[in-house]
Amino acid sequence: QEKNRDTLAAKLSKNILLEKFPHVDPKMLNELLHVHNFSLHNTVASLRLALGVGEGKRVEGSAPPPRQDQTKETRSTLVLVSGQGKDGAETDVLSDAQSHRDEAASYYSLRMECLNKAHDAFRSGNKLVASYYSQLAEMHKNKVEQCNLRAAACLLDNHKSGADTLDLHFLHVTEAEVVLDMFLDETISQLGERARTHRRVFLITGRGLRSQGGISRIKPMVQRKLGTRGIVYSEVNPGMLSALVRMSTPLSHTS
């Protein structure tokens, strides 16, 4: 009788999991239930945390990570729409950027949680569960990148001083790198549209006075990025570079 009761409880737990997580592989749900010693509460809590779904919300499943060409398409779209901030107000643009930053941080936490679960499952010999959490970690990684791209699009709009000058020195290095690529890609596209062969742009990197040790982290990144893309540049002053962008300069996703 005790065995029948346990079997019935396990079956009910599986049915509840199938109802709550209809797009998760039933075999995977069974494995996860087993990993959590058939505790329905712990299994649901673990899945909700990994998927980033709040209590009371029905899970619609996790989409597979976007293909590389989809990521490029998203990036191109962001370049085109940059500059369409709310009413053009600086505070709104910065607020939007911070919102995307916060969202990226949230997905980053979820990614680390999934990586830890994948590691634990692999160590215990459950490769199926490890693979599942690894896929979720990859999905959250792509979400982080998408949110950072949206933040960068907002920041690009706010940090351009006309078409020829980009101020990077108040940004995080990772944001500055994305914003720089967007700015250069936008410049190259405009050259093609206006049938011009080249344009000189100015990149404000700052002197690094606010950086740890007083050493600029933005400037070396910009110099490395320009070199990688074959763009000739010179130093206007310790906090600004002048770069010659040509129509033949490769776009960021092809360089």
From TrEMBL:
Gene3D superfamilies: 3.30.1370.110. Residues 166-249 form the Smr domain. Residues 56-76 are annotated as: Disordered. One of its GO terms (molecular function) is endonuclease activity. Pfam families: DUF1771. GO terms for cellular component: nucleus. This is Smr domain-containing protein.
